C-alpha cells in the first residue's frame, strides 16, 4: 500500500478519543478521498516530467501530505527525485541553478524555467517560478482539482523532516489529530500564514508540528528519536545537502516500534497544549525536538542566529535554522493571547 494511503488508513482505524459534549474545535478525520485526489495530481505531474526529461525521474510528496495531516484545501508540496543525486543538491558550487551556466547544471531538470514550461504544456496553470530563492520552485495550480502546488527539484531535506514527523505520528495516537486541530484553529486567526501576501508572517505547519512534538516530549508522551543513535561505520553518514548554507546535514533518527504512548484524551492534551504555549517563558527557553524537549534558549540562540527573535523553534536537522525566524513579536503576542482564550474555553466546557 502507498505509504501516504497507509497513514490515512491507520488513522481511520484508530479508536476515536471521547469528544467534548460541545466541541470547541472540530477534529477533522483524515479522509482517504483527499489522499487519492492528491495522488492523482502527483501522477499527472510525474507523467509530464517523465515525458519531457526522462522516465528515471519520479515525484514525491513532502510536508503535511506526506505525514498524513492534509486538509481538503491544503497546498501540495512535491519534489522531483533525481536518482543520480541521492544526497540532494551536491553541486560543487553553492550557487543556485539560475546562476550556474546551463551547460554546467547536473541535468536539464534543474532548469526551473524549463520545468515550468513543461508543466504549462501539460495543462497546469503556472503562478510563478522562483529561481533566485534558496530553494528554487515552480508554483502552479492543478486545473482538475484546483489544488495549489509547489514543486522543487531534488531538495530532499523536506522528505527527511516529513518522514521524521511521520514516525512521531505513527507512535502517538494523538499527534495527527492534534496537528489537524491546531491548524484548523490557527488558520482563521492568520496564525498559520507563513507567506501569505499582505499578512504578517506567522507560523508554518512545519513549525506547529515541531512545537507539538516538543510539547509531547516535555510531557513524557513522546520519546526523542534522535537520541542514543548507534555509532556509524567509517564513512557511513546518512546526510543531505542544502544549498544555503551549502553543506551536508546528518538526517539519522531511530525507530521506536515498542514505544507505548501514555493514554490521554485528545481534548485534555489540547487544553494542555494551549496552556503550555500561553504561559511558555519565551525569553528564557525554547523547544528543540532534537534534544528532547525544553532547553535553555541561550543554547540555541547563537547557533541559530536568533538573538532578538521572540521565539525559537530549531530545525531538527539544520542546526543553524530557526523555523520561526520570520515570526514577529506582535504575532507571538497574538498567539499567546489566543492560546489563553482557547485554554479558557476548554476549561469552561
Automatic annotation (TrEMBL):
GO terms for MF: nucleotidyltransferase activity
Poly(A) RNA polymerase mitochondrial-like central palm domain boundaries: 35-169
Stated name of the protein: Poly(A) RNA polymerase mitochondrial-like central palm domain-containing protein
UniProt record, GO biological process: negative regulation of macromolecule metabolic process; RNA 3'-end processing
UniProt xrefs under InterPro entries: MTPAP-like_central, NT_sf
Pfam family membership, one: MTPAP-like_central
Chain intervals for the UniProt region annotation (Disordered): 1-23
The species this protein was found in: Hebeloma cylindrosporum
